[in-house]
Amino acid sequence: MQTNKKWWIFTAIVIFSFMSTLTSSIVNIALPVISKAMHISTIQSNWIVSIYLIITCMLLLPFGSLSDLYGKVKIFKYGALIFTIGSLLCGFNLGFNFLLVARIIQAIGASMTLSTNAAIITETFSEAERGFSLGIFSAIVALGATVGPGLGGLILTYLPWNYIFWVNVPLGIITIILGQVVLPKKQNTAYISIDFSGLIILALTIGSLFTSLILGQRFGFQKLQFVTPLIISFVLAAALIVMEKHTQNPAINFSLFRDMTFSINLVSTILVYGLNFLVNIIGPLYLEENRGLSTKTTGLILMSFPIIQIIISPIAGRLSDRFGAWKTCFSGLFLLLLSQVVLASVGHTTPIWILCVWLGLVGLGNGIFQAPNNVMIMGSVSEKKLGIVSGLLGLARNTGMTLGTIFSSILLFQGISQVLGYSVNNYPQGHAAAFISGMHFTFLIMTLVFLCLSIISIWIQLRNKEQRRSY
């Protein structure tokens, strides 16, 4: 790919990547307003968020594969157009069903851009610049995922709910025009056959799995609404594995996961994005319900960690280029582990400035982790597989967002229920201490998760060194 306009190419890719991940989180804060405007229930309004996440996750890998065949830039351009049209349609109050269809259109476009963005950047920049460019890219993508509640609160303070979606339209038009000018017209493609039946089964497997998790959160994990799609997802996954063993060019090459470094980096991406969403969900409950702060003030406080993250990520990219990706990446993981330890100590009277420092530690860990992690993932395969790996990376991010949303509620309310002695699924009014206990329980569980992740990461690194010595 030509690199004479590399930073303009980077700008076009990054703007849309920011918008696509922003849309995953910004709508949450507008759901009560949309529910009243459309006269729908809370359970119905939750599908406005869920349908976007499910469709995006279903289509990331298929579009990643198709981009290797038809060209990453072409898929990205069409995705940008579809996403912008979907965003425009979402803002029209023509009923709940119309909004869901518009969200599906928006998700199709988002999956096309998110499955190709990292691959285009990887091809555009030389290996010496890759850490720096992916560092900035990682910061802005993660910023979109974490800044949503704060930005959404500010928009709703001054504008109707429609602008939650319409804010994407002018940016989308600018990016489409910029992309038409700077993105390369010709691009190398891989002339291979595509396993369309495998892609369809893969999409249905992912869709069934995420539908089961979302329905389980809504209705309970013992209900048929959870069990039925979960069983379907397992059956489809088993069928896919058997079928792909006998396919020359499988929809997903399971041999990629034999590389333990590659696999643990993808798992790390899921957990880190899950942590971001967990903090973004528990944070507002703590600040608004437990501490009595306004939505606007809460949004500004929660901006602590994305602001630090966007400052640190490019620096971490340079450190990754200079000192090595794994050392930099592990430093970020260690800081995220430390952030969970200190957040588990926050109480009802903790000074807000100390909370901002602890949130800043989350941002610092995120900023140091993202760039080298992406470098290791995208650098682990040949150029002809960049599309599918970029799709896997996008899927890992969205999986983390979804799991973070689901398990933040499960862990928090499980911790609260243990203290109260009965089951709750809302903030326990009049029981501030019980909420603090539930919050501590959640962050302690995340401490254990990141401790295990760090130990496994060290073990794999030592194992890799031992293997290199033996050759």
Characterization of the model:
By secondary structure, the chain is mainly α. The protein folds into 2 domains: 409 residues, Growth Hormone, Chain: A (Up-down Bundle); 56 residues. The longest helix has 39 residues. The radius of gyration is 21 Å and the shape is globular. The two termini are 35 Å apart. The model has no long low-confidence stretch (mean pLDDT 82).
How do you describe this structure in short?
The chain has 471 residues and is mainly α.
Q: What is the number of helical segments per DSSP (H or I, 4+ residues)?
A: 18
Fraction of residues in H or I helices = over 70%
Structural class: mainly alpha
Query: Count of DSSP E strands?
Result: 0
CATH superfamily of the largest domain: MFS general substrate transporter like domains
The geometry reads as globular
**Radius of gyration, in angstroms, nearest whole number:** 21 Å
Average pLDDT, all residues: 82
What is the distance, rounded to the nearest whole angstrom, between the alpha carbons of the first and last residues?
A: 35 Å
Number of domains: 2
CATH architecture of the largest domain: Up-down Bundle
The ordered string of helix (H) and strand (E) elements is: HHHHHHHHHHHHHHHHHH
- The protein's oligomeric status is single chain
CATH topology of the largest domain: Growth Hormone, Chain: A
| Percent in strands | under 5%
